[in-house]
Amino acid sequence: MVMDRATKFTMAGVVFVLLGVVGCGDDSSSAPPAEGGQRLKIATTVAPITSIVANIVGDRADVEGIVPEGTNSHTFEPRPSVAELLSTADVVYINGLQLEEPTKDLANENLKEGADIVELGTETIPESEYIYDFSFPKEDGKPNPHLWTDPTLARRYAELVKDDVSERDPANADYYAANYDEFSRVVDGLDEAMRESFATIPNRELLTYHDAYAYFATTYDWDVIGAIQVSDFEDPTPAEVADLIDQVKAEGVPAIFGSEVFPSPVLEQIGREAGVTYVDELRDDDLPDEPGDENHSWLGLMRFDFITMTEALGGDATALERVPVVNVAPDNATYPQ
């Protein structure tokens, strides 16, 4: 099935469009196996990475996530049973930048001969571009790892996956390349809509439940004024809360953002005492809806978050609402819940 890109991104009033395969090579139902007659077996960590990988490999490889959605990926300890999955995987795609160290350690202990761990985030930007901030101070040695909330960097994740699976499975390299090209065009459409919608926001300042938007903020000219979850993932002190209340009042932001997955009484208190709206709907690695639903994807997640931010801060999200939610290839990945 092939759909013209101009049609796809300019149909007025379209909010959700679910496509099977959008302009990605042939429609053959028989997926050629990797060299040696075996399909690639791929393990992934957080759900946004699983979704990006699934968009590249489609029905030509098996993809299984490790980190359950709604779990704190920074502190997640994989069950011993995950070792079996890791011992049979041809490649394990993780974010890196020290986000999933227990999973990485378990993988290193169990990988079969010839299998690899690919750290997508670590390979996306050089150390000179690492961001350290109030939640990820440089003295602790762990940079902010949340690159995938910046679509321009998520595109690089997809490119790295495309290059890697093409080397492991050259028989399907053209298919993977076509999927990447279409995914890149989807990112272009999202990026254009983001910039159009963000231009309507009077004050692009962000106070969130978790410091997951630092790279996004740099690319799209936002100011992250705070995150209530500090580096040890405990609540801020009363003095820090008081400072944030004063800052929110001084900045004049109309809304602050919490998580649907991790409720924050502290952010609710800040919103109440600062006299601003508390929006508890953002999510950084928990995809909307359920696996198999049209909105359960990296793109669905980004679209949801950016519409939520835009509208809560007084902007016009019409351009973002017109972006269809598309998977450029069949998403047959397993997403643990």
Which outline best applies? Answer: globular
* Helical coverage, percent range: 25-40%
Task: Write down the CATH class of the largest domain.
Answer: Alpha Beta
Total of DSSP H or I helical runs spanning 4+ residues:
12
Tell me the CATH architecture of the largest domain: 3-Layer(aba) Sandwich
N-to-C series of helices and strands: HEHEHEHEHHHEHEHEHEHH
| Distance between the ends | 31 Å
Low-confidence sequence ranges: 1-31
CATH superfamily of the largest domain: Nitrogenase molybdenum iron protein domain
> How many strands?
8
Mean pLDDT: 87
The share of residues in extended strands comes to: 5-15%
Widest beta sheet: strand line-up: 2-1-3-4
Q: What is the CATH topology descriptor of the largest domain? A: Rossmann fold
Helix and strand composition category: alpha/beta
Structural domain count = 2
Radius of gyration: 20 Å
Mind describing the biggest β-sheet?
A: 4 strands, parallel
What is the structure about, briefly put?
The chain is α/β, with parallel strands linked by helices.
Summarize the structure in words:
With 337 residues, the chain is an alpha/beta fold. It folds into 2 domains: 37-194, 3-Layer(aba) Sandwich (Rossmann fold), CATH 3.40.50; 200-321, Rossmann fold (3-Layer(aba) Sandwich). Helix content is 39%, strand content 11%. The chain is built from 12 helices and 8 strands. The protein has helices at residues 5-10, 47-57, 82-88, 101-110, 120-124, 151-168, 173-198, 214-220, 238-251, 265-274, 298-312, 318-321; strands at 40-44, 61-65, 91-94, 116-119, 205-208, 223-227, 255-259, 277-282. The chain has a 4-stranded parallel sheet, sandwiched between helices. It has a two-stranded parallel ribbon with strand order 5-6. The chain starts with a helix and ends in a 16-residue tail after the last helix. Residues 1-31 have low confidence and may be disordered.
